[in-house]
Amino acid sequence: MGLDFSVIPKYLDIILLGCAWTIGITLAAAILSFVGGIFFAVTALYAPWLIRQPFRLIEWLFMGTPLLLQLFLIYFGLVQIGIDLPAFVAGIIGLGLHFSVYNSELIQTAILSVDKGQMEAARTLGLSRTEALRKVVVPQAVRAVIPPIGNNMIALLKDSALVSVIGVSELTLSAQRAIGATYRPFEFYLLAAACYYVINLAMEWMQRKIERRISISR
Amino acid sequence: MQKVYPFFLEAAWTTVLLSVLTAVLGLICGTLGAAARLSRFALLRFFGAVYVSVIRGTPALIQLFILYFGGPQIGIQLDAFEAGVIGLGVNAGAYMTETIRGAIISIDKGQREASRTLGLSQWQTMYKVILPQSARLMVRPLGVNINALIKATALVAAISVVELTYTAQRYIGSTYKPFEMFLLAGVLYMIIIYVTGRGIAWLDRKVQIT
Amino acid sequence: MTDQPNFVEIRHAQKSFGTLEVLKDISLSVERGQIVGIIGSSGSGKSTLLRAINDLDPLTGGEVWLDGVQVNQTLSHRQYEKHINQMRQQVGMVFQHFNLFPHMTARENVTMAPKMLKGLSQGEADKLAQEQLDKVGMLERIDYYPSQLSGGQKQRVAIARALAMQPKLMLFDEATSALDPELVDEVNQVMRKLAEEHMTMIIVTHEMDFAASVCDRVLFMDQGVVVEEGPPSILFKNPTQPRTREFLRKHLEAAM
Question: Rounded to a whole number, what is the distance in Å from the CA of C237 to chain B's nearest CA?
Fold first, then answer.
């Protein structure tokens, strides 16, 4: 069949729109996973035993099973219990939850590594435990944890391709649409790969910049 | 519900098979990749770096699609299972390259110097002094790679290999019991991952003994 | 250069890292059986000079000769590898941080190279290990791993490892600097013993007393040049150069 890249320009707008969706989904899921990660981490470390247990179960399930399976569960499961969300929302929730669990691991380690003296110092100033956590411990932990979380976010970008399987029109599915019309899988998947690679490089570049900034304020 | 068990068990076996083959291919690619990245030839180092960067910089799913759907255009005809093993193996190899390389370069340079001053060649030094030490450092992070790889085998569901995730998806569609199907597949995945994890831990203890 | 090179001969050694000159035109010759000490503050280039002798830190200019053969020859990669491995088998080296192989017992540390490079049988190798470890007083620890040994014991095993290749020349790169003070002596005693056996040695050290008592000749290096050299009786007691005097005075104060 051979290769023919001349078909690409005609579908470039679809692919670029797909890129925009991929970036949007990645960003939304990243924010969700960051907030979720902090929530999971604080719960795992400080909540009463009984409350911790269901969260432990969730973490255990999410770390021990493939993301694709989790996406199927969330997409079809939500429908099952009567919540009919657009596919992209289900995708964002799925990606966000999945990475919340991974971020939580990092944040827990970071919180534990924040000097015990910091908590004590805050408490002697009269702050409550929650206030001390919120104002003193967590902000410090977040700084320490940003570089490894950056790695998770780059992984998130690549895993966002999976939501194409539940019908979200992001980059991968856009490529598939173009392939459906042209029967040129190699060309369009290669183009999609190149797009992911460029976004990936941009994220790595931002990660380096952010790391440099944080290293000053630590 | 009972009717689906045999299908899930068979699918789990496919997942195990995929994981084992992928891990073996990944280790081969990882070893070659690390050798290339540590080579004294600039061209090999360059190819090694490109391999790692491109594979780790793009989604594994797209890599699978290029190989499986795009392969025939450049004369590569593979069935879905073969494409899955090769695609995932080459993908895992890029991550393993960095694990293996990291374990090798983390050995104190005094070790290399001491060996070279005794008159051992580069290859003898690598084989007798560096590798035995870095092997100990490798087991655990390679275990992490393998854990990720087992979960990544789910991707081949997207090219219709009948493994656990594909099977779960199929029965979610036909039974309308997403939670049950998820749990069933999830438990099987966790068993596979748990057993593998124990194996890695055993190996790790074994190499640490001395 | 038509004159016959000495047993160890360094001619116009130069070494620079980028714009930084670490060795500036150093020449040195050592006769068979001689013991030469090199002293100087850190960054003076003394370790770099020592490590140039077996081409661990290759010179950027100049020549190193050992027993009539030039060590730092320009050869193709393959030929150089063959040549340098040959040369290094004749030169024992002892490092500040021991660099024992942690995955091998004392016995294995000592026998590995002779077995691989000289084709010793297991029996011969065992005999060799016993001899060499006995010499450094470590025979009873022959099957210990480095992690089970103290710093001084590690260094003695490292010396045995180097001696097992029957080197013509021993290089010591601050062999006692990383040791706790109470462990220094056991290593020094081993080195004294080698001196009595007329082993040719070049010793980079911080220990002036040891250098004074063992060395035939001492070099004081500063900023990449040999400032002064001579027998220890003169160099330590009546140094002629102000920089040498300054260094010795500071060193004495630090020791007090």
Answer: 35
Q: Counting one residue from A and one from B, how many pairs have CB atoms under 8 Å apart?
A: 119
CB count, 10 Å around CB of C120? 18
Among B59, B74, B173, the residue with its CB nearest the CB of A158 is: B59
The tokens describing A32, both together, are 């969700």
* CB neighbour burial string for B160-179, b if at least 16 within 10 angstroms, e if fewer: ebbbbbbbbbbbbeeeebbe
End-to-end Cα distance, chain B:
50
Residues 56-85 (B) with a CB less than 8 A from some CB of A? 57-63, 65-66, 69-74
C163 in contact with B, Cβ within 8 Å = no
The verdict on a CB contact (< 8 Å) between A193 and B151 is no
Q: Which amino acid is at B201?
A: A
Chain B residues whose CB is inside 8 A of the A186 CB are 66, 69-71, 73-74
Q: 10-residue block means of pLDDT along chain A (218 residues)?
A: 79 91 95 92 88 88 90 84 86 94 90 80 83 81 83 93 90 90 90 94 91 74
CB spacing of C162 vs B118 below 8 angstroms: yes
Output the CA angle C114-C116-C119, nearest 5 degrees: 75
- The verdict on a CB contact (< 8 Å) between A164 and B169 is no
pLDDT tens, B56-85? 999 999 999 999 999 888 888 999 999 999
Tell whether ipTM is more than 0.90.
no
pTM metric for this prediction: 0.87
Nearest CA-CA partner of A43 in A115, A85, A105: A105
